[in-house]
């Protein structure tokens, strides 16, 4: 028997052979656990994340090219079924970056994840639609706040925050503005904050804040590039939106031809409420958008409401979809995105609701807010009240 000098207790001394076997067993156990840990995290590398991103982008580019050159509506319809799935890619990239969100290399891929998943939704068993990847996006925002807020090189992440539409992104961008020591990064965060504020409406205090942030973006980051476009040019477009395309402004006239070659003009629709939808088939939510808009077309049939789509999709395809009832509203074909450019559409889908005088009463995503605005206008009530 041996005595433990610290505790004054006695314990039996194991034979030497048993002690060696126990030590060896313990060592093997640690080795197995370490090996399993390494194997589980072996994929967590920037190289693997880049492979996933480039693979998806290449697939998306290849698909877009095939879709563009498809000769018939049937070929285009078949291609829609093989469109690269962003949800599958999001799961893959999340598996890679999740264990390493504290590390700097994950910042760019976290930004890409936010961009990839921003319009994705998931339906519950009760057919209730909600935003997909909510928990994962929350973890990314928390990790960024804790580990990367004051670092250089986070401008792409700031833009991803702005484009995400997540209301939690605004205070985070405002933290970057006040706490990041790099002035160009502050300027890009200010641009992002202004873009997010645009989604909150056109109240005077919101507009003042937007203009303050746009001024800061110009002063501190005018020559910085975002996806090949200078901050100065982006701010110019944002100021154009504030001046001409915000709630309470008369919508600029817009004209183009539909599938029958008829000229469609907004100015010819005075006296009607107009739902103006900018859309294309590249969005993974295209089928959902078509379904929602068809529901509006049915709901407002026989009422003084006009639904007009603006799309770069081919004339033959839209003609076929309208002819067989798959699309229940008229569309202006905008093959070069000229009209989308005039309306400063940086992403699709997007909706504007105009009242009988052509005044913009809603801008944003398709869904319940657009529908509520139309209902209020039909009832003669001020929209939003």
Provide the low-confidence segments as ranges: 1-14, 31-42
Strand proportion: 5-15%
List the domain count as a whole number. 2
What is the strand tally? 13
Main sheet overview: 5 strands, mixed
Share of helical residues: 40-55%
Mean pLDDT: 85
Q: Strand pairing plus helix content: what structural class?
A: alpha+beta
**Number of helical stretches of at least 4 residues:** 15
- Helix and strand run: EEHHHHHEEHHHHHEEHEEEHEHEHEEH
Strand order of the largest sheet: 11-10-9-12-13
Radius of gyration: 27 Å
Distance between the termini: 85 Å
The coarse silhouette is globular
Summarize the structure.
The protein has 385 residues and is α+β, with helices and mostly antiparallel strands.
Overall description:
- This protein is an alpha+beta fold.
- It folds into two domains: 47-244, no CATH class; 255-379, Glutaredoxin, CATH 3.40.30.
- Helices cover 53% and strands 13% of the residues.
- It is built from 15 helices and 13 strands.
- The strands form five sheets. The chain has a five-stranded mixed β-sheet. Strands 1-2 form a two-stranded antiparallel ribbon.
- A hairpin with a 5-residue loop joins strand 12 (350-354) and strand 13.
- Helix 3 crosses helix 13, helix 5 packs parallel to helix 7 (155-164) and helix 9 packs antiparallel against helix 10.
- The longest helix is centred in the N-terminal third of the chain and has 26 residues, at 16-41.
- It is globular.
- The model is unreliable at 1-14 and 31-42 (pLDDT under 50).
């Amino acid at each position: 028997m041996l005595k433990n000098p610290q505790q004054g207790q006695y314990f039996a001394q194991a034979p030497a052979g048993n002690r060696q076997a126990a030590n060896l067993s313990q060592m093997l156990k640690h080795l197995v656990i370490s090996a399993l840990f390494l194997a589980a995290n072996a994929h967590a590398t920037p190289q693997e994340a880049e492979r996933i991103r480039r693979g998806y982008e290449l697939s998306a580019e290849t698909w877009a090219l095939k879709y563009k050159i498809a000769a018939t509506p049937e070929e285009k319809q078949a291609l829609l079924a093989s469109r690269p799935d962003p949800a599958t890619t999001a799961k893959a990239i999340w598996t890679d970056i999740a264990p390493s969100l504290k590390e700097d290399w994950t910042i760019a891929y976290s930004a890409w994840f936010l961009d990839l998943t921003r319009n994705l939704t998931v339906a519950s068993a009760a057919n209730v639609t909600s935003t997909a990847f909510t928990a994962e996006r929350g973890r990314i925002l928390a990790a960024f706040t804790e580990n990367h807020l004051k670092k250089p090189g986070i401008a792409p992440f700031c833009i991803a925050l702005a484009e995400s539409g997540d209301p939690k992104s605004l205070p985070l961008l405002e933290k970057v503005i006040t706490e990041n020591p790099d002035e160009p990064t502050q300027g890009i965060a200010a641009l992002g904050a202004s873009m997010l504020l645009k989604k909150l409406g056109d109240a005077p205090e919101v507009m003042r804040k937007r203009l303050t942030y746009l001024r800061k973006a110009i002063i501190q980051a005018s020559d910085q590039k975002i996806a090949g476009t200078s901050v100065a040019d982006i701010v110019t477009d944002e100021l154009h939106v504030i001046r001409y395309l915000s709630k309470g402004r008369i919508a600029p006239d817009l004209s183009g031809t539909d599938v029958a070659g008829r000229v469609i003009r907004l100015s010819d629709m005075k006296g009607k409420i107009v739902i103006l939808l900018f859309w294309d088939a590249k969005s993974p939510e295209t089928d959902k958008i078509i379904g929602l808009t068809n529901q509006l077309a049915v709901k407002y049939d026989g009422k003084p409401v006009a639904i007009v789509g603006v799309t770069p999709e081919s004339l033959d395809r839209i003609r076929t979809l309208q002819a067989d009832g798959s699309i229940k509203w008229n569309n202006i074909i905008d093959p070069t995105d000229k009209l989308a450019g005039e309306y400063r559409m940086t992403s699709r889908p997007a909706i504007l609701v105009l009242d009988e005088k052509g005044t913009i009463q809603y801008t944003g995503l398709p869904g319940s807010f657009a529908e509520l605005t139309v209902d209020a206008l039909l009832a003669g009530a001020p929209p939003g009240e």
